[in-house]
Amino acid sequence: MPVRLATWNINSVRLRIGLVAKLVDEHAPDVLCLQETKCADDCFPLSAVRKLGYEHVAIHGQKGYHGVATFSRFPFAETVRERWADKDDARHLATTFAEGPLAGVTLHNFYVPAGGDEPDPAINPKFAHKLQFLDELTQWSGRIAETGGRIMVGDLNVAPHESDVWSHKQLLRVVSHTPVETEGMNRMQAAGRWVDLVRRHTPHPEKLFSWWSYRAADWQASDRGRRLDHVWGSADVADRLIDVRTVREARGWERPSDHVPVVVTIA
Fold this sequence. Notes:
By secondary structure, this protein is α+β, with helices and mostly antiparallel strands. Helices cover 24% and strands 25% of the residues. Helix 3 links the parallel strand 7 (106-111) and strand 8.
C-alpha cells in the first residue's frame, strides 16, 4: 500500500495546531514530521495530535526553541534522540518502524541550525555551529551509507542548488545559500548516497521553494523563496517514489508558518 509522508517546519506547534489539522484533513499523511515545534515535551499538545488519528507520537523538544516531532499511524520499534555539534538543543529524532508498510525503515527528522545572519564562523558562533552540524552529518551519513531503508526529512536550512533559490547571484553571501553551506550539503548527500526525492520528482532547473520570508509585503507576488525543506532516501526507498507535493498554498493560510509542507508518496 502507498504511504504518504509529510515534513513541515511548523514554527510553534501550539500556535499552529489548527494548521496541522488542516494539513491532515486535506492531505492525510500517514506519517507527519514537524520541526521548530518550540515546545517542551511536557507541554506538547498530544491529545490534539491523537484526535487527528496518530496513535504513535515521538517528540524531542525544549522550551521556546527548536524541537522536532514525528506522528505516525504505524507503531515504532525504536526511538532515538541524538545530540549534535556539542549541544542538547532538540534537533534530531530517529524512529524505526515496527510493522506496516514501513516496517524496518528508519526515519530521521532533522532541524539543522539556521546559522544567524553573518556567514563568517570567525565572528558568528551560530554560523560556526551550523557548519559543525553539517560536518557531523556528513560523517554520520558516511557511516550509514551501506544500509538501506533510510529516510531523512526536515528543515535542513540549506538551499543547495541555483534552482532552489529565487536569485543565485544575490544570495551567494546570504546564509542558507553560501558556497560553504551548499558544498557541505552536497558532500553530506554524496557521503550517505542519499537521493533527493523532491528533485527526483521535479528535476533541475525548475525553480522550487518551500520557504518565503515574513518580511515580504506580498510573498506570492515577489516569490523570493528558497527550498530549505528536504526529503532524502536511500536508493531502495527512492526506487519506490510515486509522488511529491510542495503545499505552496499553505504559506497563504491564516497565521501561517514561513515554511510550507512537503508531502511524499512512496509505494
